[in-house]
Fold this protein.
Amino acid sequence: MTGRSAVVFLLDDTYRTGSDTPLMLHRILGVPLLQWLAHALERSEVRRFFLVCAPSLLPAARACFPPDAELTAASDEGPADLLHVFLSTADDSERDVLVITGPVLYTPLAKRAGAAPANACMVDRLALMDALDETAPVGHFLRQTGEPVTGEDGFFSLSTPEELPGVSRLLTQDLLAGLTRSGVEIWDPNNTYVTPGVKVGVGTVLLPGTVLEGRTTVGHGCTVGPNTRIIDSELGNRCVAEQSRIEGAKLGSELQIGPFANLRPGTVMENGAKAGAFVELKNASLGRQVTVSHLSYLGDASVGAQTNVGCGVVTANFDRVEKHRTVVEENAFLGCNTTLVAPVRVGKGAYVAAGSVITEEVPPQALAISRAREQIKKEWALKNKRADS
């Protein structure tokens, strides 16, 4: 894998800070500082990482690095041999290696002339390999020969957890600036939050109050927000997601979501589908051009293409012991205030009359009606009207 290399020493500095978590694993906007650092370095063409930390910290630290980066991890008890191999397999053209020796953040947009040296330095790769072959401590070599990086390079040291809230805006502004350069329109950078690892396509508009987290990808030409939170989800192209919450969902293109929709984990929506106002989906799949316009709950359900789901449709999926699944085949029509008591199936092209409670299979092309017959008692109001009404 081509790209620059970086060596990261994750120190257990809890004895000094008084915290129960190393400073580099403290969170900013829900994301460890180490993850902010690793993704910022990746954006500056660092593709290879060597991590040194205590074995107990390794699982949490590993999760902070970009999934497509090359990562080698070693225990802090004896990393020399592995580090030597890591350095020897770098591209021959790579002369210098970045070494992170303590808590640090990297924000290229916040470069400051005359700033103090950070907990990082650049070292000659071949010289570092030679030093690893000797018995002298590597730390001594770094102090003697390393070229410190400073705020002029965008690197800043941290020493206490109390400093973290003050640097969150620096980190987010740097990330948002990168999105803007790539063609994303951001209305209010001071009211938009995107965490490392999120990908947003060209021509997408992020309105105020948008929060994009985790492994989220947003396609091109979308409009997200205002006040929309998307977590660990895929959103296709030319979608609108307004004032909604989306988590663990896989969503196609040309979708309309919200306002005030809640898409919970396991939701799948194919191209052209709609989950409108006050719609909640959980472990549900909507086929192509399915419309769920408003005020419905579909849990543990599969809805076929071009089905219309009327206002107030609900799947009764839980019997107090187990969850059960509802299947609605393509081109069906579910009238308003229909309740589907799972497990149940509605066939292709079938109609369910408004106000029905469906407990048995509806055959294809059938009409299902399950409600009390309407009765009209003429002049009842005149005979039973209260005197004060």
Q: What stands out?
A: The chain has two domains: 4-166, 182-368. Residues 164-181 form the longest helix (18 residues). Residues 78 and 304 are 57 Å apart (CA to CA). The longest strand covers residues 46-53.
